[in-house]
């Protein structure tokens, strides 16, 4: 992959040198030949471009020596400029700029989306999961090479530092539904959480923590949920040893995409036909096909419920079903028109 920073630098330097050469040529002809500004500009341009249209008048020996200097210097400079432009186009820099423009247009249209901060190993896995679910998201990444790679794959990506407020604002954080911070260090994740919470009080923030000692700090910084990579990894290894079938099933349901089956949380809206009803009378399994595994009310989970358990607004149903079944459940939990 071409070094885009060096390509841009070379192109800028060559253009600055060309501008300097034009200025020297104009000043030289005005001083040596006494030409006016217009004739000096005209003469300098035709000399540097080597089009050979002739002099505006007969030059003095000093003027001709100066012209020779301009021709030799200009030929080398123009050649360097052409080579830099070729690198700019063929090296992928132009394509990168065009793709960046496309990403910005995509990001501006996003609403109720998720912001993914950091596109390392974990961040890449997160964005792939959102891709598989066809859920709107945007990635913030600081490394230009990674940004270029993601943009070439059609990923809506924003180049910048996720700890910077301006970058989060460009990612439409005001209208975002959530943010997942997968930054390289816990310190970076703390700063992302602080900035994000300050910019959007309603934002659902999930972050990783590499050190257990960082969990409390991240919670205080505004994270709704902190995933300890060490703790989760240890628990998963033990579960894979003790309950392998359960782990395999959860992997299939949650991540593999092999089956059109997944778990989802569905919120009962105010004014829904479900409010005041029970799971038996409403016939949720019959009408939607979904299995209700649990109901969360506030911070309490109910796993066993019958006719005595009446649904309330803001209850969260933990449901298992296919995509179409879950859509039917969402219609049932929505506000009645």
TrEMBL record:
InterPro entries: K_chnl_dom, NAD(P)-bd_dom_sf, RCK_C, RCK_C_sf, RCK_N, Trk_Ktr_HKT_K-transport. Keywords: Membrane, Transmembrane, Transmembrane helix. GO terms for molecular function: monoatomic cation transmembrane transporter activity. GO terms for cellular component: plasma membrane. Residues 111-228 form the RCK N-terminal domain. PANTHER family: POTASSIUM CHANNEL PROTEIN 2-RELATED-RELATED, POTASSIUM CHANNEL PROTEIN YUGO-RELATED. This is Potassium channel protein. It comes from Candidatus Wallbacteria bacterium HGW-Wallbacteria-1.
């Amino acid at each position: 992959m071409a070094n885009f920073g060096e390509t841009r630098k070379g192109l800028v330097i060559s253009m600055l040198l060309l501008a300097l050469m034009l200025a020297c040529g104009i000043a030289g002809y005005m001083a040596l030949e006494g030409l006016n500004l217009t004739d000096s500009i005209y003469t300098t341009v035709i000399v540097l471009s080597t089009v050979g249209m002739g002099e505006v008048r007969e030059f003095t020996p000093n003027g001709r020596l100066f012209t020779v200097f301009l021709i030799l210097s200009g030929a080398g400079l123009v050649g360097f400029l052409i080579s830099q432009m070729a690198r700019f186009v063929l090296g992928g820099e132009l394509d990168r700029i065009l793709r960046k423009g496309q990403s910005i247009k995509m990001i501006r249209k996003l609403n109720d989306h998720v912001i993914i901060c950091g596109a390392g190993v974990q961040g890449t896995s997160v964005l792939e999961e959102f891709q598989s679910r066809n859920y709107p998201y945007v990635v913030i990444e600081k490394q230009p090479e990674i940004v270029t790679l993601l943009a070439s794959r059609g990923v809506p990506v924003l180049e910048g530092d996720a700890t910077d407020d301006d970058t989060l604002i460009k990612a439409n954080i005001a209208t975002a539904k959530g943010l997942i911070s997968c930054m390289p260090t816990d310190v970076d994740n703390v700063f992302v959480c602080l900035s994000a919470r300050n910019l959007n009080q309603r934002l659902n923030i999930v972050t990783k923590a590499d050190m257990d000692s960082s969990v409390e700090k991240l919670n205080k910084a505004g994270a709704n949920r902190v995933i300890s990579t060490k703790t989760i990894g240890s628990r998963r290894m033990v579960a894979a040893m003790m309950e392998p079938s359960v782990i395999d099933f959860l992997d299939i349901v949650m991540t593999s995409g092999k089956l059109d089956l997944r778990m989802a949380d569905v919120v009962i809206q105010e004014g829904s036909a479900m409010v005041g009803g029970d799971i038996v009378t409403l016939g949720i399994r019959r009408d939607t096909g979904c299995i209700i595994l649990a109901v969360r009310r506030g911070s309490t989970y109910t796993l066993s419920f019958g006719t005595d358990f009446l649904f309330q607004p803001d209850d969260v149903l933990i449901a298992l079903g296919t995509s179409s079944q879950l859509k039917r459940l969402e219609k049932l939990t929505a506000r009645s028109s």
